[in-house]
């Protein structure tokens, strides 16, 4: 028997097994102890909670790897069209609970641990967040990965493995301070380092034109080479054997190309300088949509794009010997314009390295790329200075000019000499700083341009990309965002999860969330209502404990927990919320004893990070603390009003806050939030919304009915000119609360001056004054309903029941059908 024969025999024998690992509590215990001893290298008689968490995670990881292998084996055999999801940000949060739940072995692990004398929940709390993203856009990628895995799509996610994720927010004297998030300090059991999967990524240098046999071609001689090393993160689907891969790239110095520097004799400095290559993947930009033309950011974008494209083309070439089939086998999704260099990179590889002619390469690219924009206004679109591009990626800049030249010629033939329109649609923006418009590039080269909600789509068509829409209406679509009910109900709200399953008589809603609509018929049932409230109270207790440990403030469970958690932005109007709180405080102070008895007690909870350089946002955080200080220390007010700022809001904090809230605020100025996804998580958790008709809220209203939420302002379509009309006169209440801040009622008079100035009539860009009265009315309405427990609970149940549309499962099905053209590829169990 040859070695080959023996190997084939072994493959046959072990390939038939379901999996090597058993999932009964005894086997799990043995596995955990093995990892304590051999992976964590602690004695199996002596290990603490953190070490137990490490061992537990490794044991879960083994099971993930098993499925991951089988899935990829299956994909390889079937060779379906694959989706490559490119995003510069993924906000995964914690992985343990999500994994054991998706693998369907949470209870088995809990049992195994309890027999070892450990509590599953306590160990799960040991895990830190993977925060490789800023906010909504990044969490959306994470939710979509969960849906892609669960729905068995053949997909790879690609991103950057930042060593420092989003900064940690620390509050000192009410001011935000940023600290680095060195999340890898404690190890990351969920990633698998692939030292053998690495690619060279090239920067700088120059391009020469050469010719051979009369054919001209371009040669790029780069000036710097950096190595990209793959780190794989298995993403398990729920109720399926499929586990897909999120491949993140880390930068390492390249070993091959600089013998020169070693020969100069300065060995130590040569090493130190080479080490600088690693800085490319060091840190996530926390700016969340202000584009500053930074070289490092552009390097990050190209670094991750180049490595991903090499990996994807290598995989394609493993099984195909020409590029004709490429668009039938490969779909690219680019998450906003951040990865849009991928378009140019694929063109470059096809033309310069695979020697295809322009026409062929162009056709392939245009059939492969689909682009989603998350932006609402022109200022929010990404632009890259030509000088920067020309120095860092000289060949790519040439290709961009080539694309633009052809596009402009074509356009002139179609629309004639309309120069202002030609100028607007050009990829190149002339101006003080000549720049490349990445959105125009992405639209021109993609087969599909996607919006993230219906009103966002309307804005794209009528304003942001009107010129392009008029040219290519068929390219434009929208897929309203969604979130995964696995993370946002099953993982984060186990109480509600079992309650729902009990009343629906099935757990099938975890994969088919439309079934939640079945709760509607029970919405007024007093037994369900009683159990529903009980579940909420338990979640509120959990949240109240967290508030006390993180802020020192004690809150009453009888109060309405009113929450606004999201990144701090002027357009999201946390300031409107604070001014409303001041109004409430002022009212209570001016009430007589008997009126006070009628006040509905509130806990106003705000949380979120401000970009480090965003001064106004930082002032809003400070104002929040200044108001909290005054209110919380006023014995006269007591439990009628408490104000808390939850520090360092992130995914795991969200998992605690959302299930425990009664009311949540989504009050962006109409026309400014492309979609918003926080609202969907609150909705699923039976939390009532107080919201403006912006972004996806418009569709939420259609699903649950406007009578089941508290609407601020009018709906966009009822007031089509709202953008152009002068703001209605501001109310006396608004003037009063602003002047309280201005006059130093909460201290820090000078510091808050500019905030108050920005609320003056003619400067009030985000229309706080205009919406204040309507906001207060909505708040007063919420108070009135809250005292009617039956009504409130009924609305809460109907919120959950109406949340089915907002599952990322639905979003992903739409993308698969209408943008990517991919089919499920289910790994046999
Ligand atoms: O994307 C979310 C939407 O729900 C939000 O409405 C939208 O504001 C958000 C540059 C962004 N738009 N743009 C960004 C993030 C990071 C960055 O560096 C821009 N995020 C959004 C999901 O569709």
UniProtKB/TrEMBL annotation:
E.C. numbers: 2.4.1.1
Any GO molecular function: 1,4-alpha-oligoglucan phosphorylase activity
Domain of life, source organism: Eukaryota
Cofactor(s) recorded in Swiss-Prot or TrEMBL: pyridoxal 5'-phosphate
Top EC class for this record: transferase
Catalyzed chemical reaction(s): [(1->4)-alpha-D-glucosyl](n) + phosphate = [(1->4)-alpha-D-glucosyl](n-1) + alpha-D-glucose 1-phosphate
Keywords annotated in UniProt: Allosteric enzyme, Carbohydrate metabolism, Glycosyltransferase, Pyridoxal phosphate, Transferase
Entry's family note: Belongs to the glycogen phosphorylase family.
Biological role stated in the UniProt entry: Allosteric enzyme that catalyzes the rate-limiting step in glycogen catabolism, the phosphorolytic cleavage of glycogen to produce glucose-1-phosphate, and plays a central role in maintaining cellular and organismal glucose homeostasis.
Protein name: Alpha-1,4 glucan phosphorylase
Native source species: Salvia divinorum (Maria pastora)
